[in-house]
Amino acid sequence: MTFSELRQQYPEFIFHDILVNYRDGRLGIRYNFEIPGLCCFAPHWEIPCEQPDLKDGKLWRLLEALGMAELVSYWKITCSPTVRLPMPMNREQADWWKKLYFGGLGEFFYRNGIQTDFESFMTIVPGEQANPFADAPETARRGRLIPVGGGKDSIVTLNLLKDQLGDAYAYQINHRDSSEKAALLAGIPSARILEPKRTLDQNMLDCNKRGFLNGHTPFSAIVAFSSVLTAYLHGLPEVILSNESSASESTVSEQEVNHQYSKSYQFERDFAAYERTYLKSGIRYFSLLRPLTEFQIARYFASLPTAYHEIFRSCNAGAKADKWCGHCAKCLFVAVILSPFLPYREIVRLLGSDLFNLPDMEPVLQELCGALPNKPFECVGSRKEVNIALCLAIRRAEAEQEPLPLLLKNYKASPLYAQYADGAPAFGQEWDPQHNLPDALADLVRHECVDAFR
Fold first, then answer.
1. What is the pLDDT of residues 69-101, one digit of tens each?
2. Which positions ≥6 away from 238 have C-beta within 8 Å?
3. R_g over Cα of the chain
4. Where do runs of H (alpha helix) occur along 106-201?
5. Going edge to edge, which strands form the sheet with 168-171?
6. Alpha carbon of 264 to those of 16, 218, 259, 381, 434: distances in Å?
7. How far apart are alpha carbons 334 and 314 in whole angstroms?
8. Phi, psi (5° rounding) for residue 161?
9. In contact, 59 and 47? CB cutoff 8 Å
10. What is the pLDDT averaged over residues 15-27?
11. Does pTM top 0.85 for this prediction?
12. Cα gap 111→85, rounded to integer Å
């Protein structure tokens, strides 16, 4: 069925309630959603923590917010025009969530051919089940929570903070070997690696198989709200992300369709404002790498001990097996962005694929560098830094008298090489002023990732 037909047949999505329990050192959270006439959904979380105060108003605000972030994955099945909530919400809050959904579903709308607008795509109808609990008294908080995805970005964050990890916790949703290895290698003990378990409802997966609407949702918003909730449960005052300035670039040329919307600075800024105004947990949420480009992050990562090179993983296609698939846009981007800094033969060994000599990766490279209008729908760097990296990879190969692999040979013959080659060696001193870093951490990042490479 089409977007319009589904909205007509399923006019409402209902967020019924939240059920919580504490057992065996884990807080269990179940969200109850329903698309009347289709089915119910009950996604579930288990977060390791000590016994929390289940009558703490701040805790319940955080639980409600995580539910709001979770529901969009289920709402997208039918894109029901009305969303009914159990809790009160003012117009400003409702518009905040609509902005997240609308921006975070840009790829979903684009790839499903859905034409809609901010005002009409969803109406949020608040409920009357107000949180009856008072806020628990403020307590002293120390330490930080660092989400670790297992890719180069979070490894860079861990290393930049290597002298400040004595009271830090690593955070990952569901277990992933590369994430655990990165945290352990950085010096965070297993007792401080927190792994909440997120379970999707099988009914949603069945609807996907049956041909209902499906596509990308803002997963990083799930990371944001769940990590702040987890930090609150553990008495930690900071959540430090590893999103960079490149994440703010639109995936689709001349349109605001960003695969990485919930990794963007706009979302980070909006999230911080929402936390201060409505959640009031007192937890600071920011990205340590926000002033940097992917290029600068890759440069710093390449300088780290090779033990980190062996364990990092960024490939979504190979994520379940914790490996590189060696044949996707993300794998190609990683090869490109590391190519100025590591020998190509080493990149081939690490990724298990000679990507620059695969002819069918040529159109993917053209998407990455902007020869084609749209970037791949993956978490990849900006078009400019891809071009810079390619020019420097060619420069490196020629200086070492290495033959150019197929994709680099073809790129050198393109107009883009002529456009970027002369200026490429001077690239890498950029600093994006749009960030939320405390001054001391901003100075640290600038010194280690910019000044150190002059």
1. 999 999 999 999 999 999 999 999 999 999 999
2. 143, 144, 145, 231, 283, 284, 285, 286
3. 23
4. 106-111, 152-160, 177-186
5. 193-194, 168-171, 144-147, 238-241, 284-287
6. 31, 11, 10, 12, 11
7. 8
8. -100, 20
9. no
10. 97
11. yes
12. 28
Work out the end-to-end distance of the chain between its first and last CA atoms, rounded to an integer number of angstroms.
57
With H, G, I as helix, E, B as strand and everything else as coil, classify residue 98: helix
Across the chain, mean pLDDT equals: 94
Extract the tokens encoding 338: 């590391």
User: Own/partner pairs for 181-190, CB < 8 Å, 24+ apart?
Assistant: 181/150, 181/311, 182/148, 182/150, 182/154, 182/155, 182/158, 182/308, 182/311, 182/312, 183/148, 183/158, 185/307, 185/308, 185/311, 186/155, 186/158, 186/159, 186/162, 187/162, 188/146, 188/158
- Domains of the chain, by residue range, sit at 3-131+140-287, 311-431+443-453
pLDDT tens profile 284-334: 999 999 999 999 999 999 999 999 999 999 888 887 788 999 999 999 999
Residue type, 447: H
Of 218, 207, 257, nearest in space to 1 by CA? 207
For residue 370, give the nearest of 424, 416, 426 by alpha carbon: 416
User: Which tokens in the block code for residue 345?
Assistant: 């033969």
Backbone angles phi, psi at 242, to 5 degrees: -130, 40
Tokens of 136: 């628990």
For residues 259 and 107, is the Cβ–Cβ distance under 8 A?
yes
Cβ neighbours for 39, distance < 8 A, ≥ 6 positions apart: 203, 207
Contacts of residue 40, defined as CB under 8 A and 6 or more positions apart, other chains included, come to: 32, 33, 34, 203
**What is residue 34's DSSP assignment?**
E
> Which residue, 75, 84, 68, 76, is CA-closest to 31?
68
Beta carbons of 414 and 371 less than 8 angstroms apart: yes
